[in-house]
Specification:
The protein is mainly alpha-helical. The chain contains 30 helices and 6 strands. Among the domains are: 115 residues, no CATH class; 137 residues; 76 residues, no CATH class; 101 residues, no CATH class.
Length: 641
């Protein structure tokens, strides 16, 4: 939270850092964009010293900002509700006017916006009496309190008054009128009019792709709420089969729409929210149990975006083994129609592999466990599903066979599908660990380090080898590998056994030394002199180079080599400033803050002030940069340049 303000006008003392502490850098950025685009209108002061305004976003929102107990607070009619970009925009609009000496009027009695907030407060607290607020449901959140209030209101009406009220509402709200007519048709047993309407709603909701531009705070998410409500209404009327047919259309249209959308899953969530209704309809449909099981399996096999996960709830319910056995036979027949030759296209192999998974699930649910491993053995060379086979063998305690398939799988996938080979090596590691074979475990850890050098795999090696009292010899071999590319197991007197999984081809010596890994391990081992040694030898590669690595170096050597750390952070900051972009200036600020902290802690506060003044002088015409620099010193926004 921003620090407390004691001034008569607390807004005037706010800094950029205060706003970011309160709302976060991204919300501040979006709020600033809204203010600069002229989205704030009718700004006014309130009697309690706060601010209120209209802010134009995807619609027009009333926004109020106050200081509560010396801390910033806000309310907004936007979906977010509080501490939002609209509130930031209001603050910045006020400070901009203050800087320009433009008057900001007081809000007038009866201001629509203030009455709006007061009305919301009254609704939230209706009939609460002296009860604790924390135990109450929010009215406008759909809580029980609001429903009870409406119910009490309606119970006080006569039948004639209720008829008149509903008739008036239906005339004013077309959707309500349509709902009443739909219910009338359903009560007469006529489902087709509502089926036709739902089909139209599905087409309408699925017409436009969803999209989000979070930088500008804009976007579009299709609304499937009416589709969901109408499907539930149709189901409640006893038309489960019609719901299932509509479900097929919804699922097909939904997959197509998600494939066209550019958002972060919002469109998919709308479609997924309809699936529980489809699952309930499935239970009540006229299909046989085996047909229902197969219907869900087919839906999940076609689901490219994990939209239909809710349907899997039906599979988790208890079903007769005989029905699962029917499903298993049907799926096995489908699997047999795939070419028996090894597939070369990833898509086809993946499709077959997923079908194989469902065959195995059905066989197990049917109690036909003895068929699982033979099927896995047949499929492994075709779809490279060695991991599935090895897992089944381990579960059956057939360890010798599992090891044989591990080596066969690694040989087949090490180059073409390294992820599968890595999983097989992990399974071998687990077998060796369970067998308490410490030397083999250590050797496998070394193998993984060579394949993926880094702090994590280095620490794994150390944890395994130290138990054998061989860490010093192994450590030198690992570091030597990073310097020269020579595999550890080729060193004289190598103390660990062979694993059968080692890399056999010569390493590319041109990629050594592995400077990043050597630096990372030196940092991991807290050896700042070694960090500097490898950092100085590491070739610099233009502007981008390894910014995050350089930052880690500076962090690691700050206490022992403060001058080197300061030089690194200055260089990083200058590189970002050189991009001449507001976003780059904010990146530079992160390094400048670290530099300020370092210089202050080492008694060089004067050096920091001098350095910052030099940047201001050199870049005096870059207004956005100067505002970022103001935030470093908590310069009030209203006084910033």
């Amino acid at each position: 939270m921003p620090r407390k303000k004691s001034a008569v006008d607390p807004f005037s003392g706010l800094t950029w850092e205060d706003l970011e502490d309160w709302a976060g850098s991204q919300i501040v950025k979006r709020g600033r964009s809204y203010q600069q685009n002229g989205s704030v209108s009718d700004l006014a002061r309130t009697a309690d010293g706060g601010l209120i305004a209209w802010v134009d976003g995807s619609r027009r929102y009333a926004t109020r900002v106050t200081f509560d107990g010396g801390e910033l607070d806000s309310d907004c009619t936007c979906p977010y509700g509080f501490v939002c970009k609209h509130a930031v925009a209001v603050i910045l609009e006020y400070l901009d006017r203050k800087k320009k000496s433009s008057p900001v009027p007081m809000s007038k009695p009866g201001d629509e916006r203030l009455e709006l907030f007061e009305a919301e407060w009254d609704e939230d607290n209706e009939d609460l009496g002296d009860e604790d607020d924390s135990d109450q449901d929010e009215f406008h959140g759909g809580g029980a309190g609001g429903d009870e209030s409406i119910a009490r209101f309606l119970e006080g009406k006569t039948k004639a008054e209720l008829v008149q009220l509903i008739t008036d509402l239906a005339q004013r709200h077309r959707g309500m009128s349509m709902d009443i007519l739909d219910r009338k048709q359903l009560e007469k047993g006529h489902a087709q009019p509502i089926v036709k309407r739902i089909r139209y709603l599905i087409r309408e909701a699925g017409a436009d792709a969803g999209w989000q531009d979070h930088w500008r705070g804009e976007g579009f998410t299709p609304d499937y709420s009416e589709v969901r409500d109408k499907l539930q209404e149709l189901l409640d009327a006893g038309h489960a089969d019609d719901v299932m047919e509509l479900g097929k259309e919804l699922m097909s249209a939904g997959q197509d729409q998600v494939g066209r959308s550019d958002d972060e899953g919002e469109t998919g969530m709308e479609i997924s929210a309809c699936m529980p209704v489809i699952e309930k309809a499935l239970q009540k449909s006229s299909m046989t149990t085996a047909q229902k099981l197969l219907w869900v399996v087919d839906a999940l096999l076609k689901d490219e975006f994990d939209l239909f996960d809710a349907l899997a709830a039906y599979l988790d319910r208890p079903h007769p083994k005989a029905d699962w056995s029917q499903v298993a036979d049907i799926l096995k027949a489908r699997l047999s129609k795939f070419s028996s030759n090894k597939t070369t296209g990833f898509g086809r192999s993946y499709e077959r592999d997923r079908l194989g998974d469902w065959v195995i699930r059905a066989l197990r649910e049917a109690g036909r466990e003895e068929e699982v491993i033979p099927l896995c053995e047949k499929e492994a060379p075709i779809t490279q599903s060695y991991s599935r086979l090895v897992k089944a063998l381990i579960e059956a305690k057939r360890i010798t066979e599992a090891e044989r398939w591990i080596y066969a799988g690694i040989s087949a996938t090490d180059k073409s599908l390294p992820g599968i080979a890595a999983d097989l090596r992990n399974k071998l590691l687990e077998i060796r660990r369970r067998g308490r074979d410490r030397a083999a475990v250590a050797a496998l850890r070394v193998d993984e380090f060579v394949r993926s050098p880094g702090e994590s795999t280095y620490a794994d090696c150390r944890g395994a080898v130290e138990k054998m009292k061989q860490w010093d010899r192994v450590r030198q071999s690992l570091l030597s590998y990073l310097e020269t590319g020579r595999y550890p197991w080729t060193m004289p007197d190598w103390p660990l056994p062979t694993t059968g999984t080692e890399i056999s081809e010569p390493s590319d010596r041109r990629s050594f030394p592995r400077y990043s890994e050597l630096i990372a391990i030196a940092i991991h081992e807290k050896r700042p002199d070694h960090v500097i040694q490898w950092y100085d030898r590491m070739p610099k590669r233009g502007f981008a180079w390894y910014g995050s690595m350089e930052d880690r170096v500076a962090e690691a050597v700050g206490k022992t080599h403060p001058d080197r750390a300061a030089a690194i952070w200055k260089d990083l900051a200058q590189r970002w400033i050189g991009q001449v972009k507001p976003k780059a200036y904010r990146e530079a600020a992160a390094y400048l803050r670290k530099l300020r902290k370092l210089l202050t802690e080492t008694g060089q506060g004067g050096e920091w002030a001098k350095y910052l003044a030099g940047i201001r002088l050199e870049h005096a015409r870059k207004r956005s940069l100067l505002e970022v620099l103001d935030s470093l010193e908590r310069t009030p926004i209203i006084k910033g340049r």
